[in-house]
């Protein structure tokens, strides 16, 4: 079944593929590369299932800033604040999984795999471990040499409305349909309270609570994210994104029709007939969403990639080569 779905996904995306990226790119150069990456992801997942959501999110955040070039892994220096230290990336996790995989790969295939490709494989494996479908990863990405916190403004925010989030994805060559499918990644993972508490306590001058938020759901969120504690510890209080925060399923879309989307950007998917129809289709057909999500992830992983002689193969994901 895994193989059939993989073929479906790849065949449907041939017209979108970057010519320089190919499935099996490391077949001869480092034949055990995918197995090594998979082992590191599984090892971390057995300790903390939430790491899968963190790695999928890393793929989003890397690709939305300068493209899928592994720039999210670069450390800051005394003269430059890097992407991962910017405010939008304060809560990212899963970096160590990629660093560990890179160390293992450098020991057997030095200078072969880019950090950008390792992340693409790890995101696929994280999705599968969380109940999603398998896809073959087109590889051959190179690593970028620039990472600036000032550029993380390209990452869509939880407060975005439908027009804003659609435009944000369009700027990366992704369609509105891709955006709706990729939004389903919020079926796993967690969020810090500060990302959505304006919907509970400070919606606008007329009402504290967002009227587009189900009152019963809002009450549950207020219990987890009380206003007083949120003001003091807003970076540390967290809530699950969904009822099943470790399992990828389409219940995320069903929740939207109950006005239980956690973020404004989530609930906004019902603000147009086109996106609402797509969301309803996913809510009714879990497998349909999982296949579309896989397709959209392949597209996402090919945004503004560096190939050929562009960029570099970083020896250490955290530091550009001398």
How is the topology of this model organized?
Layout: H1 2-12, E1 22-23, H2 33-47, H3 51-63, H4 95-108, H5 115-129, E2 138-139, H6 162-170, H7 176-183, E3 190-192, H8 198-201, H9 215-224, H10 227-233, E4 238-240, H11 251-256, H12 264-267, H13 273-284, H14 286-300
Antiparallel strand pairs: 1-2, 3-4
Please tell me what the overall shape is.
globular
Q: Biggest sheet, strands in spatial order?
A: 1-2
Strand-and-helix sequence, N→C? HEHHHHEHHEHHHEHHHH
Write down the CATH class of the largest domain: Mainly Alpha
CATH topology of the largest domain: Peroxidase, domain 1
| Helicity level | 40-55%
Number of structurally distinct domains: 2
Q: Please tell me the CATH architecture of the largest domain by its name.
A: Orthogonal Bundle
Query: What is the arithmetic mean of pLDDT?
Result: 90
Beta fraction of the residues?
under 5%
Q: Can you put this structure into words, describing what you see?
A:
The protein has 322 residues and is mostly helical. It has two domains: 2-155, Orthogonal Bundle (Peroxidase, domain 1), CATH 1.10.520; 162-295, Peroxidase, domain 2. It contains 14 helices and four strands. The chain has a two-stranded antiparallel ribbon. Strands 3-4 form a two-stranded antiparallel ribbon. Helix 2 (33-47) packs across helix 5. The radius of gyration is 19 Å and the shape is globular. The relative contact order is 0.18. Residues 6-18 have low confidence and may be disordered.
């Amino acid at each position: 079944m895994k193989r059939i779905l993989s073929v479906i996904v790849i065949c449907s995306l041939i017209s979108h593929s970057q010519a320089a990226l190919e499935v099996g790119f490391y077949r001869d150069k480092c034949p055990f590369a995918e197995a090594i990456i998979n082992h590191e992801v599984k090892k971390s997942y057995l300790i903390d299932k939430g790491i899968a959501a963190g790695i999928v999110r890393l793929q989003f955040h890397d690709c939305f800033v300068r493209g899928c070039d592994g720039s999210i892994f670069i450390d800051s220096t005394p003269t430059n604040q890097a992407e991962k230290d910017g405010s939008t990336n304060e809560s990212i996790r899963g970096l160590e999984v990629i660093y560990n995989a890179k160390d293992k790969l450098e020991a057997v295939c030095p200078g072969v795999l880019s950090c950008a490709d390792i992340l693409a494989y790890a995101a696929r494996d994280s999705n599968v471990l969380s109940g999603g479908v398998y896809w073959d990863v087109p590889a051959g990405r190179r690593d970028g040499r620039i990472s600036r916190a000032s550029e993380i403004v390209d990452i869509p925010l939880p407060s975005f409305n439908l027009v804003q989030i659609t435009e944000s994805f369009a700027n990366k060559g992704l369609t509105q349909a891709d955006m709706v499918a990729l939004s389903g990644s919020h079926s796993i993972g967690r969020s810090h309270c500060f990302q959505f508490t304006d919907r509970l306590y400070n919606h606008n001058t007329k009402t504290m609570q967002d009227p587009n938020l189900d009152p019963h759901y809002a009450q549950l969120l207020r219990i987890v994210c009380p206003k007083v504690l949120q003001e003091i510890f807003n970076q540390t209080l967290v809530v699950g994104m969904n009822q099943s925060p470790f399992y990828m399923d389409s219940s995320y879309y069903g929740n939207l029709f109950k006005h239980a989307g956690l973020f404004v950007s989530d609930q906004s998917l019902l603000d147009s007939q086109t996106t609402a129809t797509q969301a309803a289709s996913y809510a009714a057909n879990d497998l349909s969403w999982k296949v579309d999500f896989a397709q959209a992830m392949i597209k996402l992983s090919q945004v503004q990639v560096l190939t050929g002689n562009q960029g570099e193969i970083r020896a250490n994901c955290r530091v550009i080569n001398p």
